[in-house]
Amino acid sequence: MDEAGLKTDKDGNTRSPYSLRHYALQVRLRKSKGKVNIYWLAENAGTSVEQLERFYLKQMEPSKEQVWNIQSFGDR
Description:
The chain has helices at about 20-30, 40-45, 50-55, 65-70. By secondary structure, it is mostly helical.
């Protein structure tokens, strides 16, 4: 975590190795710009969509791409 600069979060809290799971799920969702299927992400992570929403993604603000994806029919 030291080498990757991930020892602390944006608020200065020390991360545990388990907290990298939260970080990885958030990054995967954010970098997909709203295109990742949250059901497949949950299945791949061995969790549920409810768990993702309650624990892993609760601090994450939706990106403009995520908002667009939810308000469209998938065509750009």
